[in-house]
Every structure is written in C-alpha cells, then in structure tokens.
Write a structure and sequence with these properties.
By secondary structure, this protein is mainly α. It contains five helices and three strands; from the N terminus they run E-E-E-H-H-H-H-H. It has three domains: 46 residues; 67 residues; 65 residues. It is elongated, with a radius of gyration of 31 Å. The protein starts with a strand and ends in an 8-residue tail after the last helix.
Amino acid sequence: MGGSMIEIDSQGTQTVVSKGGNMKFRDIYKKALITVTGFGAILLIGGSAFAQDSAKDEYEEWQSAKRETANELREYKRNPSRDNYRGWQDALKDERREYSEYQVALRRNGRFGGRYAGNLNQESPRDEYEEWQSARRELQNEEREYRRNPSRSNLRGWQEAQRDERREYAEYQAALRNSGVSRRVVW
C-alpha cells in the first residue's frame, strides 16, 4: 500500500495510516462490499431481463406444442395402443405448460389474454375465419367417421369437434366485432 502503515489500537481496530490521514479498514471493507453488491445486483437484474423470452417466442412454442398434440392424437386414433395414448397425454401436458409460459410472457410484457399478433394482441378476422372453416371440415370428418363406425371413441371425437367448431365460430365473431366489421365476411 505505497507509503501506508497498519496500526492496531487497544480495542483491536485496524487503521491505515497514510500520507493523507487515517482510514479504518472497516470503512474500506464496507465501501468495497457495497460496491460489489450493487454491481452484482445490476448484473443479476440485467441478465434476467435478457434471459426472458418474448411473448412472440412463447406463442410460437405453444403453437408448436399444439401441432405436436394434434399429431399425437392422430397417431393414437390410427393405432389405439397404450404407448400412443401416453404419447398423446404427454403432448397435452407439454401444450398446457407452453400455454402457461405464454400467459406469463404476456403478463410480463403488459399484454393480457388473447393471442399474440404483434401490436394489438388480436387475431385478424380472416385468420379466425380460416380456423373456423378448418374446424368445420374437421367436424364433418368426425361425423362421417362416427356414422361409418359408431363407437364410443368416435362419438367422443365427434362431440369434441362440435365443441371446437362452436369455439372457433365464437372467436371469429369476436374478431369481427373487434375489427369493426358487423357482418359475416367471406374470404
């Protein structure tokens, strides 16, 4: 410590004696500890902010999980085995987890509910219409399957398709209302 000396008084307090005067080690230690702690807190906060996924990334992961669930369900319907059932259930769990992570990202970014679509977090009426039409086609396929082979499993598939079609239609109507279009638009 260039030109400094350490003195210990009768109480055991260490003092640095230098050209400029006395400064206790305790004071130096406190200042260094506060500086290091503050710097560490800044790094921790900054790092966690950069580590968080955006709502758009979480939405894409959720959509990917939904597609995987649909694939697993299709596989289970083609070949109803215990392994395929477990694969479908695992895919459902993953989808639910991704959806909850997406909701957390929306709350973290100041968006609540709905879908991520860039600026307003709303799906366009055209997209909702296409999803509704897809659900209608799926409903027709499930009904055809049930009529060909009336089983409990096919009945459940048909009923699920009915619920999905109604939900997609309601989402389409909500998107129309939100966009200011008051009548049914066909693309």
